[in-house]
Amino acid sequence: MIALLVGAGVSMVFTLLLTPLFARAFRSLNLGQFVRADTPTAHVMKRGTPSMGGIVFITASIIGYFVGHLVARDSVSGAGLLVLAMMGGLGLIGFLDDFLKVKRQNSLGLAGWYKILGTVIVAIVFAVIALTYRDANNRSPASTAISFVRDLNFNFVKIFGLTAGVIIFVIWVVLITTSVSNAVNLTDGLDGLAAGSSIFAIGSYVIIGFWQSNQSCFSPTIDQDNLYKCYLVSRPLDLAVVAACIAGALVGFLWWNTSPAQIMMGDTGSFALGGALAGLAILTRTELLLVLIGGLFLVVTGQVIIQRIYFKLTKGKRIWRASPLHHHFEMKGWAEITIVVRFWVISGLFVALGVGIFYLEWVSR
């Protein structure tokens, strides 16, 4: 618990105090946001705003995590390090995309297929290590079963055999990682939108991880009469620490990222947050629950997919004025801050529903 509180506090103070320094450094290096000339006036005005702000909260999260453990004199876990590695790996892909945009001074960063390839490689490494690593209780951080609020009976290895089952599981992890990282990336279109929504989503895993730790099957204080309710998650409290550090870092970052933003998270940040969210869902065994916890991201992505399909089928017609969805409301004349706050509310409601279902499942057992 000490590691959680200290880690979150250190991460938040780091971004709250040091983000302006990073912003000035990025500006002096001409690492400013590129905005196309055909975008709305409100977005053209953001041209030159320091980008790649994801570097700040990725760094803050990692520092907070290790400082928290140092103060608490607690050991780090393979599960926690895996989530941070997933976050950093996808953040690196986003950084390359941001850097190329700035260097070329256009919106054509890293080619789409290269971004997908990079995401696939990071996800494969994550999946393999998550299956092969063993903690002190001889448990792997990941399970080959599909999970909702805990593992379901649908286990890839039991159904398809060891080799085929592991391969299918890796593909499953790649699918989740690619989907979530791109969903968060699509949502990052207005000042503070992705950061605020991610605080809700990633913050929910502080609650989930902490509860799983209290009800862990490996806890010496677990009630023997309630073993059917306990969780087999590897080091859930450390996953909660990671989530708290990321959420804390985002709170401090949001102070400077809210409208009018003094720094943008860029693809560096949005890809990193998607990776962290995917990693937390997989290792807490709540993969399908992510549909609710990341509900806002799902809605935004779904709108983009529907819009594109309809546009192609009708040869140029649109259902909405623009996509992603937040730009549709911009075109309708809504103020940016109004859109952002209302989307935060929607994100919070999705998260509350997801966490509520997580708890009700335990109560109902």
Automatic annotation (TrEMBL):
Catalysed reaction equations from the record: UDP-N-acetyl-alpha-D-muramoyl-L-alanyl-gamma-D-glutamyl-meso-2,6-diaminopimeloyl-D-alanyl-D-alanine + di-trans,octa-cis-undecaprenyl phosphate = di-trans,octa-cis-undecaprenyl diphospho-N-acetyl-alpha-D-muramoyl-L-alanyl-D-glutamyl-meso-2,6-diaminopimeloyl-D-alanyl-D-alanine + UMP
Binding-site residues, Mg(2+): 185, 267
Biological processes annotated in GO: cell division; cell wall organization; peptidoglycan biosynthetic process; regulation of cell shape
E.C. number: 2.7.8.13
PANTHER family linked to this entry: PHOSPHO-N-ACETYLMURAMOYL-PENTAPEPTIDE-TRANSFERASE, PHOSPHO-N-ACETYLMURAMOYL-PENTAPEPTIDE-TRANSFERASE HOMOLOG
TM region positions: 47-67, 79-96, 116-133, 154-180, 192-211, 237-256, 288-311, 339-360
Function: Catalyzes the initial step of the lipid cycle reactions in the biosynthesis of the cell wall peptidoglycan: transfers peptidoglycan precursor phospho-MurNAc-pentapeptide from UDP-MurNAc-pentapeptide onto the lipid carrier undecaprenyl phosphate, yielding undecaprenyl-pyrophosphoryl-MurNAc-pentapeptide, known as lipid I.
Family: Belongs to the glycosyltransferase 4 family. MraY subfamily.
Gene: mraY
Keyword terms, alphabetized: Cell cycle, Cell division, Cell membrane, Cell shape, Cell wall biogenesis/degradation, Magnesium, Membrane, Metal-binding, Peptidoglycan synthesis, Transferase, Transmembrane, Transmembrane helix
Provenance organism: Lacisediminihabitans profunda
This protein's name: Phospho-N-acetylmuramoyl-pentapeptide-transferase
Protein's membrane topology: Multi-pass membrane protein
Cofactor: Mg(2+)
Pathway noted in the entry: Cell wall biogenesis; peptidoglycan biosynthesis
